[in-house]
Write a structure and sequence with these properties.
Elements: E1 8-14, H1 22-33, E2 37-43, H2 49-58, E3 61-66, H3 71-77, E4 80-81, H4 83-88, E5 93-96, E6 102-105, H5 108-119, E7 140-144, H6 148-158, E8 164-168, H7 172-182, E9 187-190, E10 200-205, E11 223-231, H8 240-247, E12 252-254, H9 257-272, H10 278-288
Parallel strand pairs: 1-2, 1-3, 4-6, 7-8, 7-10, 8-9, 10-11, 11-12
Antiparallel strand pairs: 3-5, 5-6
Helix pairs in contact: 1-9, 5-6, 5-9
The structure holds NADP nicotinamide-adenine-dinucleotide phosphate (NAP).
Length: 289
């Protein structure tokens, strides 16, 4: 690499986006490979997404991450879609291909499954695939929420063959809609109060309640021995869901920082065909907070 080489340009677009850790994460990935990249955070006003993407592409951009509220629009804008984007009908990653076409991908699901596997010491032998096919066999999984994030993670989660997946949501109809899309004998939908008397091995909070300092109204006794409680949200201190899970018997509790880093690594792989060392980046981020 000479000092005259232009960096490959990437960015994350969202509204708001100032809080995003994606630039720091991708620059750490690039350093691992001595890749010459630039990665910025671009705040885009609602209504201006398509124009912002086109401007970025014309200026030589190679790829984008997309966050709230543009994941559905990113999917619609793209001419090509990976299987995972198609299943989620939403995209968090765009790639500008050499033929000028925009290709959409969704890395949230592989990111979550990789992080859960890491936390449960389940080996991941397939570097490019969507997850170990039997990683969650024998596990009963509860997912709280039925919004965009849950929609994005369901297919990769189901591909890991858990014994059952229950989706519980405040608005039950939205959970039922997901059953209609991803349905199968092992997946069901309910409200929070219907969880009384049920126990789970993995409980994933995919609601945005933690953002408001709240948590879903869950009954006691939902954790099996050895259960993992996982909040997709992350922050400098434990979320309300994480605190509640600890108080109510979950032996392992984690936030979504690992998912964030893993989904970023999947994006990096999609753009550049290289798989970063995520553990080193997670350790660096934890040390900063
Ligand atoms: N770590 C990562 O890499 C990562 C990636 C993506 C998302 N996330 C996180 O995932 C979470 C969900 O994001 P999203 O994009 O799916 O949001 P979303 O599409 O707006 O969906 C929000 C969900 O939360 C539920 N909800 C909101 N407030 C609630 C409350 N007070 N009590 C109970 N349920 C409540 C909603 O229920 P109703 O259907 O009843 O409205 C809905 O199911 C956010 O915290 C986000 O930060 C993390």
């Amino acid at each position: 690499m000479s000092e005259f080489d232009m960096p490959d340009r990437y960015a994350v677009m969202g509204y708001p986006v100032g809080h995003s850790k994606s630039p720091a994460i991708h620059l750490m990935f690039a350093r691992q490979f001595k890749d010459n990249i630039e990665y910025t955070a671009i705040q885009v006003e609602p209504g201006g997404f398509a124009q912002a993407v086109e401007q970025f592409r014309i200026a030589g951009g190679c790829g984008l991450n997309v966050t709230v509220p543009f994941k559905l629009e990113a999917y619609s804008l793209a001419e090509l879609h990976t299987d995972l984007a198609q299943k989620a009908q939403a995209a968090n990653t765009l790639r500008f291909n050499h033929d000028g076409k925009i290709e959409a991908h969704n890395t949230d699901g592989p990111g979550l499954v990789r992080d859960l596997s890491r936390l449960m010491d389940i080996a991941w032998n397939d570097p490019a695939g969507s997850g170990p096919p039997s990683a969650f066999r024998g596990k009963n999984v509860l997912i709280l929420g039925a919004g965009g994030a849950v929609r994005g993670v369901l297919a990769p989660l189901l591909a890991c063959s858990p014994d059952s997946v229950v989706i519980a949501n405040r608005t039950i109809a939205r959970a039922q809609e997901l059953i209609g899309i991803f349905g199968g004998p092992t997946i069901s939908a309910c409200g929070f109060h219907d969880l009384c008397g049920q126990r789970f091995d993995i409980v994933i909070n995919g609601t945005s309640a933690s953002l408001q300092g709240e948590m879903p109204p869950l009954p006691m006794g939902i954790f099996n021995a050895g259960a993992l409680a996982y909040d997709m949200m992350y922050g400098d201190s434990p979320t309300p869901f994480m605190k509640w899970a600890r108080q109510h018997g979950a032996p392992s509790v984690a936030d979504g920082l690992g998912m964030l880093v893993e989904q970023a690594a999947e994006s990096y792989y999609f753009w550049r065909g290289k798989r970063p060392d995520t553990a080193a980046v997670m350790a660096a981020l934890r040390a900063r907070s």
